[in-house]
Amino acid sequence: MMTIDLNCDLGEGMGNDSQIMPHISSCNIACGGHAGDAASIIESLKLARKYSVKIGAHPSFEDPANFGRLRLEWSRSRFRESMTHQLNLFTNVLSGVDMKLHHIKMHGALYHATAHENSFAEWTVEWLQEFFPETPIYSLPNSLLHQKCKAIQQPFIKEVFADRAYLNNGALVSRTKAHAVHETIDEVLNQVLDIALHQKVRTSEGTNIDMFGDTFCIHGDNLKLVENLPKLIKQLNHNNIQIAR
Questions:
Q1: Which residue among 58, 103, 199, 204 is buried most deeply as judged by most CB within 10 Å?
Q2: Which letter, b or e, does each residue of 176-201 get, where b requires 16 or more Cβ atoms within 10 Å of its Cβ?
Q3: Containing domain of residue 24, as a range?
Q4: What is the pTM for the complete model shown?
């Protein structure tokens, strides 16, 4: 049976962490940028410990009003200041409960800026090398960030998306567009099977493109999917795919 890593963004105030955590193997916990505070981090960590889920920090643009989905004009110093502040909050809480950081994953607009924009990608690699040289970052395969991490051997985990639509160039369909998010079990199941078994994904434009990754993401704010997550896991098992533990 094939084993895959399934990750989810949590601690974002959706109130459904307890529904999701039993079914995933990695979590990305908001650390104060778009959502989250020390109390919410602790609650998410308790659930992660209970279900043996790997722990990731999920920093973002500091813009809770827009849930971190609006790109902000940040300088290098502003980026470093914010990342350090958010990760200090997260790692201080972690150490207080004797738990370890497994990975870092940027959120929303910052995820895309760091993946595709040269300045943000450079700042990210520089910051990681200084503060987290042995900690993997989850991001898009073949992105600019992937290339820069590979060049200096910064640990990198290629992330693909179970519940997001792709464009022909391998980028994600913008959330401002219709059908950017897959909400039905069939859509998500078919996409996971295509990527896991065939290293392909069918784009929103009707083309099959190469797609491969080390971890699959679902979103905690995808409420229809969350409600049916046990059914998705069952269907994956029927197709000889299990979630890593």
A1: 58
A2: eeeeebbeebebbbebbeebbeeeeb
A3: 2-243
A4: 0.94
